[in-house]
Specification:
With 366 residues, the chain is an alpha+beta fold. The strands form 2 sheets. Strands 4, 5, 6, 7, 8, 9, 10, 11, 12 and 13 form a 10-stranded antiparallel sheet that branches. The protein is built from 14 helices and 13 strands. It has a domain of 107 residues: Homeodomain-like (Arc Repressor Mutant, subunit A, Orthogonal Bundle). 41% of the residues are buried. The chain is globular and about 50 Å long.
């Protein structure tokens, strides 16, 4: 069990400690693992509406934080400088959890809004209102089509929205990528495509149906998407399921994943693994290991209040400069910024962890 955050971290957070109790409704109260607060005392951090402890903070510059709003379970808002930013999560139905991560409804009220997202799995996004551009980590800039398939990103990606925007998105796991796109994921890494142009008018028809719905029909939007996506999923060979399970476990099971361990588990050569992870995850094992190490560390800094200096040693970074560069590259913020002044989207994305076992572990990390 990791020690509880030191006072220097604690005094930047407003944390609610309650006695262990049984949640009456699954998403209304969410209990996180017990931590040592004082000898002989059994406590659990309990957060209403699934808001994790690290995001109940007010940073030194008076920045605003993600808090639950009136939009329903797993719905959060940040009073950003440009205006309110809202995000609501929906877990996939059980039969689709191996294909997709969370579905989310993102909205901003400002006429212009810019922020950044961390390195992530592929995303299917429907632009219900508004338009914008993505600015990828290699300098490429691409306009957002109405139905956008964003490939796996290997670095923080900036975006700029024009007009009051509302976006419905779905996180794609490798099996979902195979069903909706089917091509080599590395070919669309840090890029996007117009899914209507690439894969046919069915996606445009779904966008039209979503646009006809009212703002208060978020549950109906989610249900419609899951229904239509369920029709598109394709069976996956058992050998591929086993490979995906092995890679997922490798990425989430080690502080600093070693390629030798994956070679031993799969009995595949490094060259074979590179070809397969490029195809299904968008990058070779070494880059994936760096990406998920950074994502794991960022969550521990921002949500758990862990010391980033301690994580630098635990996770196998060369030194603190290396740690800062890696976090900045994959997250878009320095460790200090994650602790004290995370952006609105950084906070809201981290809250994906509130979904718990309702989504794949890989999606909670990314």
């Amino acid at each position: 069990m990791r020690p509880f955050p030191d006072p220097a971290v604690m005094n930047r957070r407003v944390i609610f400690f309650l006695r262990i109790f049984i949640a009456e409704k699954r998403h209304e109260k969410c209990a996180f693992p017990a931590r040592s607060l004082a000898p002989g005392r059994d406590w659990r951090i309990v957060v209403a509406w699934g808001v994790n402890m690290g995001l109940h903070q007010k940073n030194g510059r008076g920045g605003n934080v993600a808090l639950p709003d009136h939009g329903g379970p797993l719905s959060y808002a940040v009073a950003a400088a440009q205006g309110p930013v809202r995000l609501r999560y929906f877990a996939p139905p059980e039969h689709l959890r191996a294909y997709f991560g969370s579905l989310y409804l993102f909205s901003v009220s400002a006429d212009n809004y810019a922020d950044a997202t961390r390195a992530d799995v592929p995303q299917l996004r429907f632009m219900l209102t508004g338009s914008g551009d993505y600015h990828f980590q290699d300098g490429a800039v691409m306009a957002t089509p109405p139905v956008c398939l964003l490939g796996p990103t290997m670095g923080a990606t900036r975006f700029a929205l024009e007009g009051q925007a509302c976006v419905l998105g779905v996180s794609l796991l490798p099996a979902g990528w195979m069903s909706l796109h089917g091509g080599d994921a590395s070919g669309l890494a840090d890029r996007l495509c117009d899914l209507v142009a690439e894969r046919g008018p069915a996606y445009g028809a779904l966008l039209d149906r979503l646009r006809e719905m009212e703002d208060g029909q978020a549950e109906d939007m989610a249900a419609l998407c899951w229904k239509e996506l369920g029709r598109l999923v394709k069976p996956v060979r058992q050998a591929i399921w086993e490979l995906l399970a092995a890679v997922d476990a490798w990425l989430i099971g080690e502080g600093s994943p070693r390629i030798e361990a994956l070679v031993e588990t799969t009995s595949l050569s490094p060259r074979q693994l590179a070809r397969l992870t490029n195809k299904y995850y968008g990058a070779p094992p070494k880059l994936l290991a760096r990406k998920y190490r950074a994502l794991r560390c960022s969550a521990r800094i921002a949500l758990d209040g862990d010391s980033w200096q301690q994580l630098c040693e635990e996770a196998g970074f060369y030194d603190q400069s290396h740690f800062i560069r890696e976090i900045k590259h994959f997250i878009g913020l320095t460790p200090h910024q994650l602790q004290t002044e995370p952006t609105a989207v950084a906070q809201l994305t981290l809250l994906r962890r509130s979904l718990g076992s309702d989504v794949a572990v890989l999606n909670r990390l990314s």
